[in-house]
Specification:
Layout (H helix, E strand, L loop, with lengths): L7 H20 L4 H19 L4 H8 L7 H8 L1 E5 L12 E8 L2 E8 L5 H7 L6 H16 L4 E7 L6 H5 L2 H12 L6 E10 H5 L6 E5 L3 E3 L3 H8 L6 H8 L3 H6 L5 E3 L10 H20 L3 H13 L10
Parallel strand pairs: 3-4, 4-5, 5-6, 5-7, 6-8
Antiparallel strand pairs: 1-2, 2-3
Length: 319
């Protein structure tokens, strides 16, 4: 498994353990005690490194090329998925997928950004950066959910909305702004989970939900660390400092009241045990949907409106 720079001590030790195990098998020599000692050291090293990650290191984990994407979670935690295509105005955006599915016996509408694994799929999915038609498709599916009384489950994983000339010509800013306005009033329970990158308006364009959860090593930010560094310091290599200043980690977001819950990940990140991560997300989503579907539509919308109106409000000093 490919490792990040800060994971080098872990990958080196894993390689050493594998070499010892292979040597034991080839030479018929019992080195199980040494292997066990190294495995214990490995677990200790993992706990030490992953419990003390900097914000920039968490950004790197959120971008890990083997991290599960939306369709991976759909396959792991849902059944009967039927993908729906197109915005009925221009085309079908492959960077943002959606459709009908079941989570256990609960029918849902699923929407999410989708990145690519290899070069060909990255190009097809535009690296998970949606065009205006992607956000219009998402809104179409949310309205469909409301029409049929279905809850909406949203997976967010994008560096940001695509901002080329063609996207601007087709109304990128207007499409996202429309989603922000309309999602406040969609009379359907909505749960959003940030599974990797939560970048800027590209994330927020499908992020106005009753419950917003962030995976432990994911991030949610108004701008990427590199973009922030380029603006503030005129130097994108200052990204680690920008990540610290942006307060973009799940832990910072929860402390500021911008999200509702942190979703635990396996030690080392979601890619270390994708099925366990999917099971954790599934349990949280099902509980949230159970709570939300017990509310009347007017109660749901009132609570959602208040949730987002309260963000950024600073109480006046006492006295």
């Amino acid at each position: 498994m490919a490792g990040l720079d800060f994971e080098k001590p872990i990958t080196d030790l894993e390689k050493k353990i594998q070499e010892l195990q292979s040597f034991t098998a080839d030479k018929k020599i019992d080195l199980s005690a040494e292997v066990r000692r190294l495995q214990e050291k490995l677990e200790s090293l993992k706990r030490d490194i992953y419990s003390n990650l900097t914000p920039w290191q968490k950004v790197q984990l959120a971008r890990h090329p083997q991290r599960p994407y939306t369709l991976d979670y759909v396959a792991s935690m849902m059944t009967d998925f039927v993908e729906l295509h197109g915005d009925r105005l221009f085309s079908d955006d492959k960077a943002l997928v959606g459709g009908l599915a079941r989570i256990d016996d609960r029918k849902v509408v699923i929407i999410g950004h989708q990145k690519g694994r290899d070069y060909k799929e990255k190009i097809k999915r535009n690296f998970g950066m949606a065009h205006p038609e992607g956000y219009r498709k998402a809104l179409r599916l949310m309205r469909l959910a409301a029409d049929f009384g279905l809850p909406v489950v949203i997976f967010i994983d994008t560096a940001g909305a695509y901002c080329d000339t063609a996207s601007e010509e087709r109304g990128q800013a207007q499409a996202i702004a429309l989603n922000l306005r309309e999602m406040i009033a969609i009379p359907a329970p909505m749960v959003a989970v940030i599974i990797g990158e939560g970048g800027s308006g590209g994330a927020l364009g499908i992020g106005i939900a009753d419950r917003v959860c962030v995976l432990e090593n994911a991030y949610y930010s108004v701008i990427s660390p590199e973009g922030c560094a380029a603006i503030l310091w005129k130097d994108s290599t200052k990204a680690p400092e920008a990540a610290e200043a942006l307060k973009l980690t799940a832990q910072d977001l929860l402390k500021m009241g911008l999200i509702d819950q942190i979703v635990p990940e396996p030690l080392g990140g979601a890619h270390r045990d994708p099925q366990k991560t999917a099971d954790t997300i599934k349990n949280i989503v099902l509980q949230d949907l159970k709570d939300l579907t017990s509310l009347k539509p007017e109660e749901l919308l009132k609570a959602r409106y208040k949730k987002f109106r309260d963000m950024g409000v600073i109480a006046p000093p006492a006295g």
